[in-house]
Backbone:
């Protein structure tokens, strides 16, 4: 890529979106990060998002307050307990209570508005269809449909001045592969926070689905999670 | 309809969405209103939305703060001047600066999350493809695409427990027809506020595109706008 294009990257502060940001940067995009303060009980991830964005050199980082608690419906935003220590069968059976209704639709829609404003046509999101916890809005068919919508929804789409693309570089990767890719690109996973229910000092619980998937990913990649190493020293 | 179904109705406080709410109610739906405090300079419309929702008997009314100013890009949310006294040719040429990037995509996405949370499958939005000011996200093809997306994006869509429908009862109506329909259903348009740039006492400017379209609508319906009558007494 000779001239750098702008891209909007959804950045949660977790492992996946940190990797996505590194991939977007590696592909030559000038990256604008977008995070949401959506009433998540694991709000500490926003501090992680800031650190990750800074480390990977984003040119802007918008953190948008969006209180999804007002519409309710998820263990991540309400008083429903985050499930812990689920076995494989439990984790693979259906959509868990941590599902936030229409979350990726909402996040991508706002990313689209931001992209249109800054003249970007590339959106990056860290969805994953392999170790994905069963969320419907992480599937390839959802992403493709959103891309079609984006090109109908916008001034740029109507005027034919550009086609929006939703990049999902992790969609077919296992957690282990994602981690290996990020390590190759120099991501410091010690800055990231994946836990759905961390302690106030950001120590992960180690038992929620997200912690379990992360631990297995590092094990599969044959690596030690630097977030754990940092906290044990 | 024997058993009343729930519906989420996007309610801005303007003339169109008030009519949509009356139509949804007339069709037998139990209505849940959703409004956005999105940093619009015509924030007074939220007071109008509350009054309209109350008058038409919504069972819940969520007003969600969502500061789209953080992503910029529109005369409705930034310091760009709202255009005034435009003639027909100007109003019909292209997409105006009052276009908010991806606004209906964002609003429908959040309405979808709210619907999924309360177990509703019907969304109502007052888009209009006739007197529509040229917004890309008011077109029928956009709405159809969003409906397809909704059924891929959600737990309910994946589990096959219901199909989402996006109702656009006004989409093919002129402003005059919309007003006549609302009058027939008992809508008090004196409660609504359409102006993009009202005075602090909610007096409409009379010159923005929205005021002009409203005035023509009442003229076409052969009626006096009760919002004007109220203010002149």
Residues:
């Amino acid at each position: 890529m000779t001239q750098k294009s702008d891209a909007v990257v959804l950045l949660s502060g977790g492992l996946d979106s940190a990797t996505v940001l590194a991939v977007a940067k590696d592909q030559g995009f000038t990256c604008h990060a977008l995070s949401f303060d959506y009433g998540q009980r694991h709000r500490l991830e926003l501090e992680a998002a800031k650190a990750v964005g800074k480390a990977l050199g984003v040119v802007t980082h918008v953190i948008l307050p969006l209180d999804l608690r007002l519409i309710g419906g998820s263990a991540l935003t309400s008083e429903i307990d985050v499930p812990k220590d689920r076995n494989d069968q439990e984790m693979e059976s259906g959509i868990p209570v941590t599902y936030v209704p229409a979350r990726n639709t909402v996040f991508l829609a706002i990313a689209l508005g931001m992209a249109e404003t800054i003249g970007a046509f590339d959106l990056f999101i860290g969805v994953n269809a392999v170790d994905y916890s069963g969320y419907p809005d992480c599937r390839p068919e959802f992403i493709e449909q959103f891309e079609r919508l984006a090109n109908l929804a916008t001034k740029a789409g109507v005027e034919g001045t550009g086609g929006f693309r939703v990049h999902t570089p992790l969609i077919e990767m296992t957690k282990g592969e994602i981690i290996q890719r990020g390590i190759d690109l120099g991501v410091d996973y010690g800055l990231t926070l994946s836990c759905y229910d961390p302690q106030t000092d950001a120590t992960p619980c180690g038992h929620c689905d997200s912690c379990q998937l992360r631990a297995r990913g590092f094990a599969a990649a044959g690596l030690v999670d630097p977030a754990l190493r940092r906290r044990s020293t």
